[in-house]
User: Fold this.
Amino acid sequence: MRDRNTNGSGEPARSVGAPLDLNLLRTFLTVHRTGSFTAAARLLGLSQPTVTTQIRSLERQLGHELFERQARGVTPAPHADELAARIVRPLDELAAVAGPADGADDAPAEPVHLAGPAELLSRCVLPGLSPLVDAGVRLRITPGLTEPLLEDLRAGRHDLVIATFRPRGRALTALPLTDEEFVLVTSPTQADRLASSDQTERLTSPTQARRLTSPARLQAALHAVPLVAYAEDLPIVRRYWRHVFGGRLVRQPEVTMPDLNAVKAAVVGGTGFTVLPRYLCAAELASGSLVLLHDPEDPPINTSFLVQRPGTSGNPHVAVVRDHLLAAARDW
Assistant:
């Protein structure tokens, strides 16, 4: 979109003090929040060409460009950020005062659409949902990988996403949710084999590892043990190796499964070793069905984020779910 500083007669496109159309501002704020004309159209119940026309009309009134088109969505120009900061609070307050349309004051709130990693949802989120459901909150939960889930969030398909990394850009709001520690684990059978082959010191507690005497010897010994991983490119295992051992892991996994619960099950059953989030295998470590192979002073940590579109949602239960998750995550 080009700057349109004048109208057809060569005069300024908008006279000083002329009021801006609230509908145009509402459309602008939705585009700014979602980072997409298409996503904004879906949320507003408009066609994408209508949203485009409204934004161009607002740009003509203001006399400058608001968004730059990118391969995926749009990026706000500095003028857009300034305008959004000025109007977000009054427009959200006006929407709250106006309330639901079509006389639906007594209608139940829409379901809250929550998405995130399957393992974190099943292990941490789902067991603690009863207070929300008892309070009348309805939930629609979707597991998946962070990148496509964030795209769906921008498009208005989700209300909240638990992301394994902080999203880039200004179109989404992210709050730190929880830190997950990664641990190197195997079954007691495999640990005993490693111990007997290297005369490792055996520890009496089942929650501790049969540890080799040095990280270098541990790495060398593990080359003879099958590796079970989430994916062929070993994203979690490679991160552990780089952070803890200070080097690159060069090998192929013997077993892959894009489900960390399945990876855990394979290792518990005696199939090799892997790296898992501690929250996912805490019970197995406590029972002794898994053992630590290494216990570094500085284990790798990954922060998960609770992500939503900026501003106040029209569904009051979104804030209820957000606040519940932020509080519950302290005990995960």
User: Anything to note?
Assistant: DSSP finds 13 helices and eleven strands in the chain.
